[in-house]
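Q: For a teaching session next week I want to show students how multiple molecules come together into a single three-dimensional assembly. I've collected the sequence lines for a complex. Could you give me the predicted structure tokens for the whole thing so I can convert them for display?
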Amino acid sequence: MSIRISATIITRFLSRYGSLVMLATLVILMSLTSKEFLSLNNLTNVARQVSIFAIIGAGMTFVIITAGIDLSVGSLLALTGCVAMTIIDKTNGDFIGITAGILVGAICGAVNGITVSRFRVPPFIATLAGLTVYRGLSLVITKGLPIVKFEGSFRFIGQGVIAGIPVPVIIMVIVVIVMQLVLSRTAFGAYIYAVGGNEEAARLSGIKVAWVKLWAYVLCGLLSGLAGMILMARLSSAQPAVGEGFELDAIAAVVLGGTSLMGGRGAVWSTLIGALVIGILSNGMNLMGVHSHYQLVAKGVLIVLAVMLDDYLKRRG
Amino acid sequence: MSTSSSKNNQVASTSKRADRPGGNRPPGPSGASHLVIEHICKAFPGVQALNAVSFEVREGEVHALIGENGAGKSTLLKILSGAHQADSGTIRLNGHDITIEDPRSARQLGIAIIYQELMLVPWLSVAQNLYLGREKQFGRGIVSVKKMNAMAREELHKIGIDLDPTIPVAELGVAEQQMVEIARALSENARFLLMDEPTASLTEKEIEILFEKIATLRRAGVAIVYISHRLEEIPRIADRVTVLRDGEVVHSSPVSEVTLSDLISKMVGRPMTAHFPERTAFKGAEMLLVEPPPESTRSRTVIVHAGEVVGLAGLVGSGRTDWALRIIGAVPSKNQRIFIDGKPVKINSPTRARNLGIGMVPENRKDHGLVLCRTVRCNVTMTILDRLAKWLGFLNTSAQSDTCSLYLDRLDIRCSSDAVECSTLSGGNQQKIVLAKWLARNCPIIILDEPTRGIDVGTKFEMYTLINELSKTGKATLLISSDLPELMSMSDRIYVMHLGNIVAEFDSRQTSQEEVMHHAFGYFDRD
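A: Of course. Below is the structure for the complete assembly, covering every listed component.
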């Protein structure tokens, strides 16, 4: 009897904090198999790599909780970088360039949001169009060529270090904390959950559904812009082809964190965990010398298994 | 455990062979199909859903099963239909012990269930639904649609239904879909038909048709177990009635031997002198006035005063819900003229309606009333989040939980904490939460669309008492209901809607159900 009770408690714990358990298991496994893994250098490296996905994932979490999806974030990463770098290149105004880049992200997010909420185009289609359009615009702006710039203060947000911590990681932590607070503590966050959980009930309760959705996409776009700035700064260049497939990694991070694609459930902190799982997995496989081709296979299998396990636990718990 | 169940399986399969009901074989040894369950127990975590329940139903009998929500009626049906397994007890079919392992074996034994939510595939045709999973008989690989349709037509004809088998089920009304389900059950040689609240979403007229069909089936020797919340139906169609309370049978007898008020007091376990609390009407200032749309020549103006409960009667499909949704701006309407406190207002969204002080409890709480995957607290305070937001939109969480517990108390909503998901609550408690969220907003005008549908008698009574209390505090209430006794007893005045028009207005003390129904059916059209 007591065994059964403790079993249900464990199941409940796992269904709630499954992503954390997965992360812990992964960390233990990796530290056992590789000595390098736990070195400060390597961990800093992982955190820096994860930061971009986690920042995009934070915005993506909002969109997915409203039962939407944003496939355009990868292209936005490139477009915002290209816009910012073009401005920096022409004017030497690093600050203006970065502000403009983030703003372009927000505007493109707004375009996605309006298409979805006002014109009722399904999010998958609307943002799939965004994926193509924004990629196309990046190529148009740069004429298909990368813009490289090895000097300038803009590089700080990608390459800078404060008290031993890379700036992208600091930005990521701030973004995750702020977004988590917005989601769980503000009226807007409550609207996001309500709209995703039952749009009609939310509407009849007087919540402005279209407005809520619009802002979810704006935030997602804005954070993609921010991530675009970090990526641009890290690479010291704007590349129109950069960020392809990033949308899938961001979505994977959200899903691994346990946020439901059906909407109404999820959290930003768990997306960070999801991003860390993906980051540590690829880092670990790199350390073990697994070929990148096999890494892709492993990553895909992990995502499906994690979601299957999560679903199983939720049904039992 | 596993050995005993496999043994039982063997018993089941032998008995299946021995007297497969509904086939061409003669019925079992007792001379008629006869299903007996004895001392059935079933526990779910934390509750004993059924406790030593015994029950029987014979060929050609309609057996009504009544009880409050949570009394165990649905659990019993689920055990008979194989969706749940009993913890202990025996089930006998024509004298043989059987086990019903799953819905499939129930169907093979001739037991079919028709749920309240219908189980049809909307975009498949009537015929395709009838034979879903059994297409093989119309050809291997490629199904002969022609043969299937012909056979479906015949099958429907057998129970006297004139339906085109080629049209998609989604285009049918609820009653017709129900008929399709019944036809499907019978085409699988069902001898026992379990019906879970079949009339809950039917109009008066459709109910008549259903009752006729039930009578036909009974004459044909089908046994029917019938769950209903509408007590007045019981004497009309049932032969026997069994009352469940807290998982136990508290009464079982032929219908002719009990009165309705007996049944009610048995269900709730306490004598209930009247179904409805006494109303003391007072009429304050005019709060809401809805003019008829200019293009309508025969619609009337609807007025609701403070402290008044105004009923809106009409058949299902007469457009009552749509009319209400237009008032709160959820359905666009260009030239609907609405006055609040005598001032003309323009309402183009539910948000605007809310800010003007109109709240609506929608008909379907699960689809339109609640965010089921969110907590009780989130749902109760959903309408006042804008008021709870402080600096930068951050919620005043202590005010939020205070407001929530205030209304949980006031409406006697039962939940272990305000942090549980709404999906875990019973229907009655869910309905109260939908009401609570508008009380939290303190809306002076409240529209209630079928507020007591599918909730048990006790909660209904609480709901009525609440409505009375609200109107005492000066709220203007508009009550939409298909339950005429409810509408007559609860409202001070009644408007009747027919085909989207408000066609009549009555003082509810000076009219009769017949008069209201006549107008609802449009019999006075030519006046």
